[in-house]
Amino acid sequence: MLPDKPQTRRPALAGLRVIDMARVLAGPTCAQTLADLGADVIKIERPGIGDDTRPWGPPWLPDVNGEPTRDSTYFSSANRNKRSIAINLANDAGAALVRQLACKADVLLENYKVGDLARRGLDYAALSKLNPRLVYCSITGFGQTGPLRERPGYDYIFQGVGGLMSVTGIPDGEPGGGPMKIGASIVDLSTGLYASVAILAALRERDASGFGQYIDMALFDTVAALTMHQAAGYFQTGKVPTRQGNSSGGIMMPYETFKCADGHLIVACGNNSQWQALCKALARDDLAADPRFASPSSRQINRDSALSELRRTFSERTVADLASRLDAGGVPNGPINDIKQVFEMEQARERGLRIELERGDGTKVPGVRNPIRMSATPVEYQSAAPRLGEHAESVLKDWLGIEAVEVEALRAAGALG
């Protein structure tokens, strides 16, 4: 149980300096997580262009007059609590500036193609000589090794290549059957979270050894990990998992979406007591007493018969009536909400899932709260996603002690955007 009044201390990662040289979603999500926890994250972007997702609109973020800017809402979703500086890596002075910043950093995160940064002297081998304490995390599609290491790719591709789409969607042969991607960018987001864990583990080890290390993260590895329980079954049986639609091929039964008289309801029963409670709530004592459905295994074996009976009963009643009955019986269930309905739920309001942050120009930007909740060092929301290059002066002064005159000289040399 949380204390009534959390004893707030400085943010969990206060004092940690992070360079975010990643683009799109996986890397920026990782860096945003570190920033939410209190790290000073500087986002190094390309002059004039910035992160690849800045122009991924509409929808666009508005300016103070309500007019659309050049920054997309997509970009804003993964870049809050960061400071932006635009540096030209192809410029010798620009690359040298990044090396100076890396000497002051604890973590560097990048997702360039394999070998790209080595040509600029910004790879781990080069930077770790300058800063042995640096934790350097690379995120690529297929990783730094293997025959596909140089191939590019996005989340959608890895959902297919990594097997996720083979177990997502309506089964072949049924109406609407065939492979289906997950609506959210699940591989990117999961890779970002795994990378956050890896970075924090490397920092913890650095406390003991005094040295940083290299982290090789791959979207391909992550998507394989997302299918770990299906893969475990395949390794044991040799049977390739297939798409089950809104059903489950596992031992839980029912684990299903049921069509009701006025909508759909998800029901999940993971044990015998929940099965009995479901039957009672539906006034189906006959199913509760049927020996074919007496255990999770027997229900799975006889799933077609059980589902046929359940579907008939569900189709005769409304979602509200069924949800009320199942809630009263302690049976896990839930409706299928759209995004609007999610954030209109009283639960979402109580948990504060929608937040609003301010950009440097004063505009308000809505977003989704970080799900991490810590009693003593809670997540702090300082600022919305930055405008391109808006923090060059403050970053260079704070990290390197460079004054405004020198910043202008760097701009004149083509190092800064």
Fold blueprint:
Elements: E1 17-21, H1 26-36, E2 40-45, E3 60-62, E4 68-72, H2 73-76, E5 82-86, H3 92-103, E6 107-110, H4 124-130, E7 135-140, H5 155-161, H6 186-209, E8 214-218, H7 219-226, H8 228-237, E9 255-259, E10 264-268, H9 272-281, H10 285-289, H11 296-301, H12 303-315, H13 319-329, E11 333-335, H14 339-344, H15 346-351, E12 354-358, E13 364-368, H16 392-400, H17 404-412
Parallel strand pairs: 1-2, 1-6, 2-5, 6-7, 7-8
Antiparallel strand pairs: 3-4, 9-10, 10-11, 12-13
Helix pairs in contact: 1-6, 6-7, 9-13
Number of strands: 13
Classify the secondary structure makeup into a structural class. Answer: alpha/beta
Widest sheet: strand ordering: 5-2-1-6-7-8
Helices, by number, come to 17
Oligomeric state: single chain
Would you list the SSEs in sequence order as H and E? Answer: EHEEEHEHEHEHHEHHEEHHHHHEHHEEHH
Shape: elongated
Mean pLDDT: 94
* Residue share in helix: 25-40%
> What share of residues are in beta strands?
5-15%
End-to-end CA span:
49 Å
Ranges where pLDDT stays below 50 over 5 or more residues in a row are: none
Largest β-sheet summary: 6 strands, parallel
Computed Rg:
26 Å
Report on the structure:
It is a single chain. The protein is an alpha/beta fold. It is built from 17 helices and 13 strands. It has helices spanning 26-36, 73-76, 92-103, 124-130, 155-161, 186-209, 219-226, 228-237, 272-281, 285-289, 296-301, 303-315, 319-329, 339-344, 346-351, 392-400, 404-412, and strands at 17-21, 40-45, 60-62, 68-72, 82-86, 107-110, 135-140, 214-218, 255-259, 264-268, 333-335, 354-358, 364-368. The strands form four sheets. It has a six-stranded parallel sheet with strand order 5-2-1-6-7-8, with helices on both faces. Helix 1 (26-36) crosses helix 6 (186-209), helix 6 (186-209) crosses helix 7 and helix 9 packs across helix 13 (319-329). The protein is elongated, with a radius of gyration of 26 Å. 34% of the residues are buried. The model has no long low-confidence stretch (mean pLDDT 94).
